Amino acid sequence: MRFDGSLEELKKKLEPLASAGEWREINNNQHQFKTKSKGILNWYPSTGGILFQGKAHFAQKLRASVEPLLNTEAHNEADGREVSRSADEIVAELSVEDASENTYFIDDTYSDSELVIGLVGTIGTDLPEVSKLITDRLKIFKYETRNIKISADIIANIGSPSQSAHEFERISSYMEEGNRLRKESRDNSILALGAAAQINKSRGKQEPLRRNAFIINSLKSPAEVQKLRKIYSDGFFLIGVHADHTRRYEFLTKDKSMTKEQASRLIERDADEREEYGQHTRDTYHLSDFFIDYNGNSDSLKKQIWRILDLLFGKPYITPTFDEYAMFMAFSASLRSADLSRQVGAVLTKNRCIISTGANDVPKAHGGLYWPDKDEVTQEITDVADGRDYMKGEDSNAIQKRLIIEGIIEAVPEKYREELAPLIKNSKIKDITEYGRVVHAEMEALLSSARSGVSTAESDLYCTTFPCHNCAKHIVAAGIKRVVYVEPYPKSKALEFHSDSISLEKSSKNVVFEPFIGVGPSVLSQK
């Protein structure tokens, strides 16, 4: 479908649908109309091309609604009252999502659309193998795949990385160049924009390319993910690839001939650099739409990728595993948190039944956490004054940390204060959490179960963030046998303090802490 007029002319022609959605500018050459039912119209002024995206059922409805409005001759011949009535019906259809529609993405109507797939994994993860398996599977759907490697295709073209034969020096140089490009542009998404430019260049005059998928390997900053989601909307997916530390370490030392010290330095640097424009793979990973595990078993990796693509292409009867369902519920639980720093959710399960939920928030008298309630006098839904931290307007933990730092600085001779102040502020003091009023989500899940008289022994805990060391000791004492998490929490000393009771190995007799693998909550919420 094409429209060769101006944006204002297009909006005027589609005015009968205006109340069913909203327009937004993705970039200079892409304008998007997204309906409340998540049908999407993309218009590209340079070519006049129009592409429909979104859930197949609603993409079809949107296409069927747009076609007669752009066909001026047919539109003028219709009876005015009939057009008005039909427009009202169409708006109603596009505004309400059909609960019976359970395919997420693509059927025959959408199967020739363009896909952009981002990969994220810590250094030492075999992402090329993941790209290969995605490429092979997409051939079944008659897709042509193009790989964009951020290091070789973007950084090497716009920067000046070292081409050293030694892998440690070469990789370190690419990291430095990536950091420099982000810093000089003051834009942490600059490399993602480079990838988008590559995609645009490969399109030529055809926008977008039919039955084409672009695999971007790999993303290192949350800003890159946000930018690609803004540009490609529902056509972009992020796949997080997990590989255990031992496997990544051996890959770097054996396959890449690095020393043990060099491998450890790269792994630590890649996970999270302190500088604003550095590598932040850890923070990027948990934004994934899908999480897969590569433990060296190629067949297992292949089956995980097949399931993801089958889901995207609308294969019926792909429903969540219990792990996926439980983690979705943990993310749902986090929505009730009003914590000033981060929102965390947790659910406790036994025999594949959810027995309690928890979120990080302030406790209230007689048990549980604060909920907003309706004021019977004003009829407004409000929070209790001085209840939650945001109502008090302060974070007690932040206040106490500041007082500790000020106390130390005042105890130091005045001539050293200016020099020592930033060192003290950036010390381990900043990781203290014990002065907060908030009950952590994992603890609230345990306490909620206790208040109901349900034993926590031999249960599983799903939490959106890796438990802190304070929660970890209570998890061990409560008899939890397994903990599943999405977002790492670098401040946690759980493994260091409780190595006798906690393990990352699934075969261990200790409490197993393992990363979530499967379809992420962000995808299930749209299913």
From TrEMBL:
GO function term, MF aspect, one: dCMP deaminase activity
What keywords would UniProt list here? Answer: Hydrolase, Metal-binding, Zinc
Domain of life according to the entry:
Bacteria
Its GO CC terms?
A: cytoplasm
Q: Provide the CMP/dCMP-type deaminase domain boundaries.
A: 321-510
| Pfam families on file | dCMP_cyt_deam_1
The entry's protein name is: Deoxycytidylate deaminase
As for family, the record states: Belongs to the cytidine and deoxycytidylate deaminase family.
Q: Which organism is it from?
A: Pseudomonas syringae pv. actinidiae ICMP 18807
- CDD domains named among the record's database cross-references: deoxycytidylate_deaminase
For activity, the cofactor(s) needed are: Zn(2+)
Q: Does the keyword Zinc apply?
A: yes
Which InterPro entries does this entry report, sorted A to Z?
Answer: APOBEC/CMP_deaminase_Zn-bd, CMP_dCMP_dom, Cytidine_deaminase-like, dCMP_deaminase-rel, Deoxycytidylate_deaminase_dom, P-loop_NTPase
| NCBIfam families found in the cross-reference section | antiphage_deaminase
